Amino acid sequence: MDQVVGPKSSGGKAYNQAFAREVYQKVDSGEEIKMCMQCGVCAASCPLREKMDFSPRKIFTLIRAGQREKVLSSEAIMLCTSCYSCKVRCPRKVPVVDVMHGLAHYALGLGYKPRVETALFGQKFWDNIYRLGRIDEKDVAQRYFLGHGLGQGLKLMMENKNMGLGMLLHKRMKVLPERPIKNIKTFRKMLDKAKAMGKGGAV
Ligand code: SF4
Ligand code: SF4
User: Fold this and answer.
1) DSSP-assigned beta bridge partners for residue 16
2) Is 95 in the same domain as 187?
3) Which atom belonging to ligand 2 lies closest to the Cα atom of 52?
4) Which one of 9, 121, 173, 180 is CB 3.0 to 4.6 Å from 184, fit for a cystine?
5) How confident is the model at residue 203 (pLDDT cuts 50, 70, 90)?
6) Residues 88 and 124 in one domain
7) Distance (Å, rounded) from C-alpha 107 to C-alpha 110?
8) For residues 196 and 47, which has the higher predicted lDDT (pLDDT)?
9) Helix (H) or strand (E) holding 14
10) pTM of the prediction?
11) Coil vs helix vs strand at 142
12) Do residues 181 and 132 lie in contact, with contact meaning Cβ atoms separated by under 8 Å?
């Protein structure tokens, strides 16, 4: 039975449960949403709330209401920065951050690209880890900028040069390229295996 009657606030509208079941079964940590009591603490704690089209609390409501397109094409699921404020404050111990990343991963796997820039950055970050076994910040940044095309990439580099110089000055970034870690081939095999299991890959 896919239809249930929603709360009075929804005007008693019938909710389609098919999408909620899809999330519970196919999205990493998706089943944890069942514990959400809609208190809104996660939304109030989220530093990105102002930038999100829907708060984490609202995303969970939309899932229960069967709003598949709205959720999977939402910018909010791509904006989460893993600050963990929501997860540590949730009174029902819902791993909100894990669900948000799980939804982003699931949406990208289905071909949705709610935020092209975030998807591009995630891909370059993943490529860097795969190639080196660690992050070379300047390499990720350059590849991300140039992923916008040569002209736009050079423009973005110039716009962000002060941040790069600041990172160099404060020793947050090295001038010379990073070298791959020892046993990089073994590390890549682990990543390949994780990806094949559907737990890894770019998000
Ligand atoms: S803090 Fe937890 S229980 Fe409250 S709305 Fe967010 S996920 Fe739901
Ligand atoms: S982990 Fe993500 S969703 Fe949670 S408060 Fe931080 S940015 Fe918001």
Assistant:
1) 3
2) no
3) 8
4) 180
5) very low
6) no
7) 5
8) 47
9) strand 14-16
10) 0.76
11) helix
12) yes
Phi first, then psi, for residue 5 (nearest 5°) are -80, 130
Which amino acid would we find at residue 192?
Answer: D
Q: What is the DSSP string of 54-101?
A: S-HHHHHHHHHTT-HHHHHT-SHHHH-----HHHHH-TT---HHHHHH
Ligand lying nearest the CA atom of residue 97: 2
Q: Give the closest residue (by CA) to ligand 1 atom 8.
A: 36
84-142 pLDDT tens trace: 999 999 999 999 999 999 999 899 889 998 788 888 998 899 999 999 999 999 999 99
Q: Is the CB of 104 under 6 A from ligand 1?
A: no
What domain range includes position 174? 116-196
Instruction: Match 């963990």 to its residue by tokens.
Output: 84
54: nearest Cα among 111, 103, 109: 103
The label of the residue with tokens 């990720």 reads 140
**Length of the chain as a residue count:** 203
Cα 88 to Cα 112: distance, rounded to the nearest angstrom = 29
Is 90:46 a contact under the CB 8 Å cutoff? no
